[in-house]
Amino acid sequence: MDNKIKILSQLLEEKPMDSFLLHALALEHLKINNYEQAKDCFLSVLKYNPNYLGSYYHLAKLLEQLQDEKSAIFYYEEGMKLAKQLKDNHAYNELKSAYDELLFN
Known about the structure:
The protein has about 100 residues and is mainly alpha-helical. It has helices at about 5-15, 20-30, 35-50, 55-65, 70-85, 90-105. It is globular, with a radius of gyration of 14 Å.
């Protein structure tokens, strides 16, 4: 097991619903192509903390890679709605750009 994954997993044993740790673990799984584990971590982040905006983008990108366009579109749209609510224009623009690229390319 990758050392960072091991450390993050141990930390999550103490704080199983920590969004930051779950998101970080998902990113580490992505680095070594553990796509299903990454997906599960991102979904857990959004289950425990639906306002964790960065996970929408990364999850949607992953779903695109897994050729689940319908789900990717859903998470891009949900992320864009949240970004608007939070008035986070930077996140909105990143989500919108990726969304448009998926739909129009």
